[in-house]
Design brief:
This protein is 57% helix and 9% strand. It is α/β, with parallel strands linked by helices. The chain has three domains: 84 residues, SRP54, nucleotide-binding domain (Four Helix Bundle (Hemerythrin (Met), subunit A), Up-down Bundle); 194 residues, P-loop containing nucleotide triphosphate hydrolases (Rossmann fold, 3-Layer(aba) Sandwich); 141 residues, 434 Repressor (Amino-terminal Domain) (Orthogonal Bundle). An eight-stranded mixed beta sheet has the order 3-2-4-1-5-6-7-8, with helices on both faces. Strand 2, helix 6 and strand 3 form a beta-alpha-beta unit. Helix 3 packs across helix 4, helix 5 packs parallel to helix 6 and helix 16 crosses helix 18.
Length: 441
């Protein structure tokens, strides 16, 4: 997520970190580079202009506190401005006091609209609501089928009528929700490859007919400046309430995330960070700014861990860590827990300083499969007492896992080194370096 932008911003600010004082000259030099980085990331030109002016004014208009360096001071100002660009605080969905609440989902074809509808239904269901998915995209082949499959997967009903118009489907779905105790209706409207009058007229008619409590505009974050232009066109017609950025797990340059709120004046409410139905997060501007500047996102990391880790297992593991009794069996169990939290590159991106390990997109997820195969080819005694693994055992393990003796030796060597780090690991130290050394290229 934003790895390239993070790396380039870090490079742009590197010179400032070594400065003993802030001057107009060294600030302007650093901000010229920041401006270039933001424009390369496809951030809207006017947004960049205002951003740089604000940072410059604040940098030269304040006294530097003696306990921090000029570099830290500038980075804090840039962090605050990035947070301000993206909305300052988290914006939540508006629900009606009457049943059902209606959420209308709009966007271009290919933006991930239908998948987002399924993800949102799953998220709301996990929070105790009773959603109904509505298949109002009657144009795209298999759109209704896709939503029905998603509904089955998350066990949420889908309202569809293959013979009716989108407007009729939207109207009927409200009555269906009332009759079937569904408190939240999520209407997946049709998209097109480009904005056209017919599509705009249809979504306007649906809005007038069902009076949604919330209209969410879904945009592919990989399209950068085009995403902002499309959002503005939709907003002019629909006056939507919030933006959803999808595909943030891909090669996202960052332009849409940093520009869209300033241009349309509406907050980003959710971000899609993967294809799985649980890969949806509420958008927190301060956490995203922290990630963009390479400071990690410990709050989100802890929240993910709390959602996925077994508490009793975690407490048992902590006791082992303190006593330096961490085994390959424990290591394998932890790999399974980490995989539940998302891709390894996503987990690493939340750890402060992990970007120093290199481009997190280069983290080799396939390496995990080889590690797992090697560990699973060991006996239980070998996993719990790896020191007993001699030459003949290594040969057997390599053959059983489809790897080489060298790869088995490499894993064991790194594991023994890891064991020495376990006391620090229990205090949260060296975690990023440990993972990065093992799985980075």
């Amino acid at each position: 997520m934003f790895e390239t932008l993070t790396e380039k911003l870090d490079g742009a600010l590197k010179k400032l970190r070594g400065q003993g004082r802030i001057s107009k000259e060294n600030t302007e030099e650093a901000l010229r580079e920041v401006r270039r980085v933001l424009l390369d990331a496809d951030v809207h030109f006017n947004v960049v202009k205002t951003f740089i002016e604000n940072v410059q004014t604040k940098a030269l208009g304040q006294e530097v506190i003696s306990s921090i360096t000029p570099g830290q001071f500038i980075i804090k100002i840039i962090y605050d401005e990035i947070v301000a660009l993206m909305g300052t605080t988290q914006a939540e969905i508006t629900f009606s006091n009457e049943i059902p609440s209606v959420i209308m989902v709009a966007g271009l074809q290919g933006s991930g609209k239908t998948t987002f509808s399924g993800k949102l239904a799953r998220l709301l269901k996990s929070k105790g609501r009773h959603p109904l998915l509505v298949a109002a995209d009657v144009y795209r082949p298999a759109a209704i089928d896709q939503l029905e499959v998603l509904g089955q997967e998350i066990e949420v009903p889908v309202f569809a009528d293959r013979k009716a118009s989108a407007l009729e489907i939207a109207k009927k779905s409200i009555q269906f929700a009332k009759e079937n105790a569904r408190d939240t209706v999520i209407i997946d409207t049709a998209g097109r490859l480009a904005i056209d009058e017919e599509m705009m007229r249809e979504v306007e008619n649906i809005k007038s007919a069902v009076a949604p409590d919330e209209i969410l505009f879904v945009v592919d974050s990989m399209t950068g400046q085009d995403a902002v232009n499309t959002a503005k066109a939709f907003h002019d017609k629909l006056d939507f309430d919030g933006v959803v950025l999808t595909k943030l797990d891909g090669d996202t340059r960052g332009g849409a995330a940093l520009s869209i709120r300033s241009v349309v004046g509406k907050p980003i409410k959710f971000v899609g960070i993967g294809e799985k139905l649980d890969a949806l997060e509420p958008f927190y501007p301060e956490r995203m700014a922290s990630r963009i500047l390479g400071m990690g996102d410990i709050v989100s990391l802890v929240e993910k861990a709390q959602q996925t880790f077994d508490q009793k297992k975690a407490e048992k593991l902590q006791q082992k860590l303190v006593k330096a009794q961490f085994t390959l069996e424990d290591f394998y169990d932890q790999l399974q827990e980490i995989k539940k939290m998302g891709s390894l590159s996503q987990v690493l991106s939340m750890i402060p300083g992990a970007n120093k390990l290199g481009n997190l997109n280069d983290v080799d997820e396939k390496e995990l499969k080889y590690v797992e195969a090697i560990i699973l080819s060991m006996t239980k005694d070998e996993r719990n007492k790896p020191e007993i693994i001699n030459g003949s055992r290594r040969q057997r393990i390599a053959k059983g896992s489809g790897t080489s003796i060298q790869e088995v030796n490499k894993l064991l060597k790194q594991f023994f080194e890891m064991q020495k780090m376990m006391k620090n690991f229990s205090k949260g130290k060296n975690f990023a370096r440990m993972l990065g050394q093992r799985f980075g290229r």
